[in-house]
Design the sequence.
């Protein structure tokens, strides 16, 4: 019987041996939009989940025609079909963690809230995606407001970038002090941990985690690589994978950031715009008899 061994050197201790007949894997569900170019959304999440040695499942909220240069078109899924996908997953292979990305409309927010409550989903990591880097709106304003009331309180962690943190907190975010203020405000409203991503700030790209009344800074210099398409999707999916393993929120964030940093630093250069990360960097596949 052949066995496949995945070596992931970005964690010194992380060596996963996967047999073809493996009986136990962590299960992680991604709920997001589909990116046909493979750099963000469902595709990026599933690659990330695989890189962490977990079993990935997906619920698609929208189809997007996009590439490294921007989004050309969006086709939203019917809410009943979103619900059917959730039923199919949760009644058969229960996920140990759930990552949520693009939620296009009010109906999608409602069905997600109802189903995730009914199934008592655990370890929800929500990336409150409002729009794409190229400026395309990906969430209705009313849906964003409703998500704050119905969906975000179900999360274990929210991962807003600076513009999203400003929208969620009504606090202008320009420096470390305002990042802390915004994180506290968001956490008070949602009741969960908050990771404010600092990539939009000038200078360093430091991230701030606010969890159980404690601040954790993750300092990171900007990496000299313009190809960062899907970074937010990848980070939230990686955190979900680590939470599925039983790590604390701070440890999960720290190890997920290490993975994302390596995926950006690998220097993959595809497409004519802001290209994708190398989600498989550090993975070595070989067969052993």
Sequence:
């Amino acid at each position: 019987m052949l066995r496949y061994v995945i070596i992931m050197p970005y964690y010194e201790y992380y060596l996963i041996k996967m047999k073809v007949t493996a009986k136990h894997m962590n299960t992680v569900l991604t709920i997001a939009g589909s990116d046909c170019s493979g750099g963000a959304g469902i595709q990026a999440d599933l690659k990330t989940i695989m890189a962490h040695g977990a079993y990935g499942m997906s619920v698609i909220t929208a189809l997007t025609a996009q590439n490294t240069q921007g989004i050309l078109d969006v086709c939203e899924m019917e809410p009943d079909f979103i619900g059917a996908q959730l039923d199919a997953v949760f009644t058969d292979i229960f996920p140990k963690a759930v990552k949520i990305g693009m939620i296009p409309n009010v109906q999608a927010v409602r069905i997600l809230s109802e189903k995730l409550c009914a199934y008592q989903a655990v370890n929800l990591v929500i990336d409150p995606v409002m729009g794409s880097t190229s400026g395309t709106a990906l969430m209705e304003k009313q849906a964003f407001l409703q998500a704050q009331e119905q969906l975000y309180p179900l999360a274990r962690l929210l991962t807003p970038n600076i513009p999203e943190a400003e929208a969620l907190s009504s606090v202008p975010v320009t420096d470390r002090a305002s990042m802390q203020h915004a994180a506290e405000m968001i956490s008070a409203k949602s009741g969960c941990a908050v990771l404010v991503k600092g990539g939009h700030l000038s200078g360093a790209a430091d991230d701030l985690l606010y969890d159980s009344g404690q601040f954790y800074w993750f300092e990171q210099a900007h990496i000299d690589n313009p190809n960062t398409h899907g970074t937010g999707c990848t980070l939230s999916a990686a955190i979900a994978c680590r939470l599925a393993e039983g790590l604390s929120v701070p440890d999960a964030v720290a190890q997920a950031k290490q993975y994302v940093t390596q995926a950006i630093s690998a220097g993959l250069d595809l497409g004519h715009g802001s290209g994708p990360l190398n989600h498989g960097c550090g993975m070595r596949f070989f067969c052993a008899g």
About this structure: Helices lie at 41-51, 79-90, 106-118, 141-150, 162-169, 176-190, 231-244, 249-265. The CA atoms of residues 227 and 274 lie 5 Å apart.
